[in-house]
DNA sequence: TGGGAAACAGACTGAACGGTCTGTTTGTAT
DNA sequence: ATACAAACAGACCGTTCAGTCTGTTTCCCA
């Protein structure tokens, strides 16, 4: 086997991810990606069949990181015995990381992908759906444990974290202020606390 | 004065809005827009200086409609005396319209615009910011009237409606199911009700 | 009724795009 | 040492893009 191509492949993905999140997929040319990655057209098409294949690979890798974030939140709160408290602290985990999330990326790759129908119908959106489903499944478990009589569908409430994430990303882009991520996650957490505290005969 | 060009201009905007919301701005070519609008290149560049100018005009018109929606919600709840109840019913107004919002458009133009840095830095995002600010200002008034001692920043809570709207649009695109809009607005409304009911010494 | 400007039509242009092709380098197994 | 395939470089190609240019139609007003 010749030199390790995986290194260059990752460099291409790194450059592409940043450019796509910043400018969108269609607005990012392969020449831009190649230049930013410091490589060549030959190298690019050795690793990816087409530009659409790049989008797929990009999203696959991003989903992996996203699911790792989900696991990180679950792990960080695994020791909390009270289910309602764990759910709140789970949300607070991301609230506490809100500022560093926004300093690491100015937006979310999902938004760039979902914006373009060619990517949605291409199957790239299916990868995102699997990530959303994983978040929903795990959080719904926490919700059901926290309250059996909540006046809210557990799945819908679970989805609201994704909704808050993505909505906050867009709000940050709109105003140019990254603090909305932390603030909006905080809004969700406090609303959640109020709903849980209303539960009959708790504590 | 010759024939009324405003009609054709609107047709171009209609076609462009649909295509841009569906496919993104950079992924939409002028030839597509022209064909969908049933007009010509000459007509297009008679009405718009450039493709970026189209984005600006598109966003301007969309913001107008957005602000009309804001006003519709305010008007529909203007007669409700109790401030907390009015705030809740204000959110429910959009919840009730969730399904028709999603049948009229598969996503939001704001998302397509905010995805591309060329549009954000171009000043088009400023138009969106003005819309967001208007929503925030009006809703914050309702929030402050509804509760003077809420454990939440009124502006941040007001922003959460925009966050829920945009996040729900993306969730709908991810799963292909339009009902998330109504459902997520419902989640926000119920969480809001819980937070308001917790307020000390209310009814 | 004819002059003029707004409103349009569509062929055309140069640049940029995604993708291909030919050739070279690199590491490894024999 | 050599054979060989993976890894890469970059010139090249056909197409599509945003934008231009020339000419025609429409309608009001004098």
Task: Describe the structure concisely.
Two copies of one chain form a homodimer. By secondary structure, chain A is mainly alpha-helical. Chain A has helices at residues 5-23, 30-37, 41-47, 51-76, 83-96, 98-104, 109-115, 117-120, 124-146, 154-175, 179-197.
Protein described:
2 copies of one chain form a homodimer. Chain A is mostly helical. Chain A is built from 11 helices and no strands. Chain A has helices at residues 5-23, 30-37, 41-47, 51-76, 83-96, 98-104, 109-115, 117-120, 124-146, 154-175, 179-197. In chain A, helix 10 (154-175) packs antiparallel against helix 11. The first copy, chain A, binds a DNA duplex (30 and 30 nucleotides) through helix 3.
Give keywords.
homodimer, 203 residues, mainly alpha, 0% strand, elongated, DNA-binding
List the helices and strands and how they pair.
2 copies of one chain form a homodimer.
Chain A: H1 5-23, H2 30-37, H3 41-47, H4 51-76, H5 83-96, H6 98-104, H7 109-115, H8 117-120, H9 124-146, H10 154-175, H11 179-197
Chain A binds a DNA duplex (30 and 30 nucleotides) through helix 3.
Q: Profile the largest sheet of chain A.
A: none
How much helicity do the residues of chain A have?
over 70%
Oligomer: homodimer
**Quick one: which chains have the greatest interface?**
A-B, 52 and 52 residues
* Number of separate helices of chain A: 11
> How large a portion of the residues of chain A is in β-strands, by DSSP E?
under 5%
- The value of Rg of chain A in angstroms is 19 Å
Apparent shape of chain A: elongated
Average pLDDT value of chain A?
A: 95
Q: What's the end-to-end separation of chain A, in Å?
A: 64 Å
Pattern of helices and strands of chain A: HHHHHHHHHHH
Number of strands of chain A: 0
In terms of structural class, how would the helical and strand content of chain A be classed? mainly alpha
Low-confidence parts of chain A: none
